Amino acid sequence: MADRVHREIEDLLADLERRGKLPARPPRPPLRRRLVGPFARLDRAVSSRFERMTPGRALATGAILVLIGYFFRSFLGPAQGPVVIVGLVLFVGGFFWSFRAPRGPRVEQRWRGRVIDVPQPTIGQRLRRALRRGRR
Of 87, 104, 132, 133, whose CB has the highest number of CB atoms within 10 Å? Predict the structure, then answer.
């Protein structure tokens, strides 16, 4: 059975060659794409890791690094300072990021089967609203 299928494929290819309708070999990608390809894959891999980063994870990672740097200072030696500094930067960055990040997952809003786009208030509008609430 397999031999018959193989023979049939060979016959079809020979017939296409005789007619001159054999599909042309696909062109090689340009040099730039061949050189950039590995770096693009690396970029996608790294960016996908950071997409999962949340303010809470940044805070937790920073706190853990600070604690590791403090409790294992004799083991870390001269690397203890950079570990603590990176931990502090992550912790402070995660703290400020938590004010900027939206609360909860973004749910696509629909009405009668159509997606509706509700404009989000800007930082200035939020501040004005907060100041007005404070006056009452």
Answer: 87
Q: Which one of 14-18, 54-58, 63-67 scores highest in mean pLDDT?
A: 63-67
- Return the SS3 of 106: coil
Q: Which helix (H) or strand (E) holds 9?
A: helix 2-19
User: What is the predicted pLDDT for the residue at 43?
Assistant: 66
Q: What are phi and psi of 114, to 5 degrees?
A: -110, 145
CA–CA separation, 70 vs 89, rounded Å? 15
- Judged on CB neighbours under 10 Å (0-12, 13-18, 19+), 97 is middle
Note the pTM of the prediction, 2 decimals.
Answer: 0.45
Q: What is the full DSSP assignment across 30-61? A: PHHHHHHHHHHHHHHHHHHHHHT--HHHHHHH
Contact 68, 83 (CB under 8 A): yes
Q: Is 98 exposed, middle or buried (0-12, 13-18, 19+ CB in 10 A)?
A: middle
- Virtual torsion, Cα 49, 52, 58, 61, nearest 10 deg: -60
Distance of CA 32 to the CA centre of its chain: 24
